[in-house]
Amino acid sequence: MDRQTVILAAGCVLWRRSPFTEGIELALVHRPKWADWSHPKGKLKRGETFEDAAIREVREETGMTCALGAALPTARYLAQGCPKEVRYWSAEATAGAFAPSREVDRMAWLAPGAARGRLTHERDKELITALLGVLRAAGEQL
Questions:
Q1: 84 bridge partner residues
Q2: What mean pLDDT comes out for the span 5-15?
Q3: Per-residue pLDDT at 139
Q4: What is the C-alpha to C-alpha distance for residues 125 and 36, in angstroms, rounded to an integer?
Q5: Which of 31, 65, 90, 140 has the fewest C-beta atoms under 10 angstroms from its C-beta?
Q6: Dihedral (CA of 129, 105, 23, 58) sign
Q7: Angle of CA points 63, 71, 139, to nearest 5°
Q8: How many CA atoms are closer than 13 Å to the CA of 13, on its beta-carbon side?
Q9: Beta strands 36-38 and 106-110: pairing type?
Q10: Domain regions of the chain by residue span
Q11: Measured between alpha carbons, how far is 127 from 66 in angstroms, rounded to an integer?
Q12: Partners of residue 24 on adjacent β-strands
């Protein structure tokens, strides 16, 4: 791969109304290959839109179906020396259940503050702030 080729990826900050409190919970995934906690995301397949990739990655990594909401900030960074662009959306979980895989061995539903503390990368923490702003603007009870 040419070192200047941008790796294109998509993901979601997946949320649900908490079954335990009045607030919301966010889904984080643990990837053993990278030993990190992150939002579900992955590379686009040939001919796939960013939105379709985001929905597919949520389903593959969390077992959940979701309804895409507002676009969130795009992350741009170097991944193993190559430029990478990840477009994110707010996404409400609608159904499903997690099953561990080789790629994602754990998933956790956490309150926003706890999720911010668990995330490995600062860029992922900023997405929580963006999501909460979107949800507040939509009148969601946080």
A1: 7, 77
A2: 97
A3: 86
A4: 13
A5: 65
A6: positive
A7: 90
A8: 32
A9: unpaired
A10: 7-137
A11: 17
A12: 17
Q: Which residues contact 69 (CB under 8 A, 6 or more apart)?
A: 89, 90, 91, 92, 134, 138
Return all residues near 3 (Cβ < 8 A) that are at least 6 apart: 81, 82
What are the angstrom distances between the C-alpha of 52 and each of 12, 13, 42, 43, 66?
Answer: 11, 15, 11, 11, 11
From the centroid of its chain, how far is CA 81? 22
Pick the CATH number of 7-137 from 3.40.50.970, 2.40.37.10, 3.90.70.10, 3.90.79.10: 3.90.79.10
Query: Of the candidates 112, 128, 119, which has an alpha carbon nearest to the alpha carbon of residue 72?
Result: 128
23: helix, strand or coil: coil
Q: Say what the pTM is.
A: 0.93
Q: Give bridge partners of residue 90 from the DSSP assignment.
A: 13
Adjacent-strand bridge partners of 66? 93
